[in-house]
Amino acid sequence: MSTWVLEDPQILQLDDINCYPVDIWRVIAPVNSTAPRSSQGHPVTPKTMTTQHRYFHIRRYVRFAIAAAAFVMLGLPQHVSAKPMPQGQEQVIAQSAQEAVAVFSSLTRLSAPDRGDVFLAYVSNIAAQAANFLGVDARVMQQSWLAADFAHQRALVNGLTQLGVPYKNNASTENVAFDCSGLIAFAWGKVGVGMTHGSSAQFASATQIQVEDAQPGDLIWRPGHIAMYLGVQGAVLQTPYSGRSVELQLMNERITSWVRYANPLI
């Protein structure tokens, strides 16, 4: 699996989760926390958990997951002629998202919490990749993605698997083509939330919220267009218009000042 080489030691990477799942708190804890710190000054979790804890050592799962992904991905349907692959960094993000979805689906022998822990490791890694592509603070984006509920995380990762798929009006076909609302319907439909086609209809079917309450994966709407929020103001996953494809983008300040946010789960 492709990974990023990140210079900031505070950015959580896939292989950093080497103790227990609760070490995730190192990422979402405030920087000025009074929690214990390592010799380098980074927050650490005291390893006081005993063997009766219901979680296993997550690094073993992550390594197993990466190995499983290689086999699972070989069995996934390919539409090479219909799907021009995204270039460069977006391709890395798309592949990471595809691996996350494939691994989560394949590890049925694990309990739901353990499958979720493996998925969280991917979520953190993909968040750092997306942040670096957009030029935003990777730690802030990771905090936002890890704080989101599981359904929002899965919906967003589902959408990211389609990076590079071309725009087509009224389309909603995996690995082939999407319009803006087609991508939303696909991503949320994969987690059991049915949404009709059409940006206005989707926005109306969800509950409008303030940006302060928005999670990654929530809807960002303006008349004629809808996208998925990435957890950092202005950052979206979208399919904009003909000639473009599913992409990561930063909206300009003029647009962010009047868009509306909505949560499909409430």
UniProtKB/TrEMBL annotation:
Listed GO biological process terms: proteolysis
Keywords: Hydrolase, Protease, Thiol protease
InterPro entries in alphabetical order: NLP_P60_dom (IPR000064), Papain-like_cys_pep_sf (IPR038765), PG_Endopeptidase_C40 (IPR051794)
Record domain NlpC/P60: where: 149-266
Name this polypeptide is given: Unannotated protein
Pfam families: NLPC_P60
GO MF annotations, alphabetized: cysteine-type peptidase activity
Transmembrane segments: none
Matching PROSITE patterns: NLPC_P60 (PS51935)
Family designation: Belongs to the peptidase C40 family.
